[in-house]
Amino acid sequence: MKLVVAITGASGAIYARRLLQLLARSGHDVSLTISAVGAKVVERELSARVDLDDVDAGVIAGTEMAVAYYRWDDFFAPFASGSARYDGMAIVPCSVGTLGRIAAGCADNLITRAADVFLKERRPLVLVVRETPLSGIHLANMKAISDAGGIILPACPSFYANPESIEDLVDTVVVRALDHLGVETQWSGRWGSE
Ligand SMILES: Cc1cc2nc3c(=O)[nH]c(=O)nc-3n(C[C@H](O)[C@H](O)[C@H](O)COP(=O)(O)O)c2cc1C
Description:
Helices cover 39% and strands 14% of the residues. By secondary structure, it is an alpha/beta fold. The chain has a single domain (8-28, 50-181), classed as Flavin prenyltransferase-like (Rossmann fold, 3-Layer(aba) Sandwich).
């Protein structure tokens, strides 16, 4: 599959790291883009150096991986057009700023444009939104995107599989995001998998 991963400036860069790690092992064709604030949050939370002109996805993933990187303002990226026929996009983590711009149809950067494309083409778009508490504006924006076919998958870890580490908790969110993109994972935390 041809997949797009976008990282925006919400807390939770570790979700992006883990998502990229799992995709690195999946054999899928991954394209990556990062917002300007997203890069700063990644640097702060993952202690990874991010040069927006030349991002090494391996530094973010913590493992070597081949991805096609596109700057947040590069509207010439292939997935900025529906005719390129990509299979899915995840925004991980997704800020409420990006959420609001997508809900309003404001395609002002590569991330919001690509999201707009995935919605109009009726292709999977997963938003791992991270904010708390949520205002009525955030909730209305989530409903608008959900009504348009997007998947709102908040960064709300679950505890029923008795996670023992932060990584285990992160997987309870990231694996579900991959589920909605149609990416197979081997994960022992599924209910009923004991
Ligand atoms: C360290 C840090 C943490 C942040 N955490 C969040 C967050 O959890 N959720 C959120 O919606 N915005 C958060 N923000 C604010 C966004 O980065 C800000 O609204 C920004 O304009 C989002 O732009 P983007 O969506 O283009 O990345 C954070 C900012 C910083 C610097």
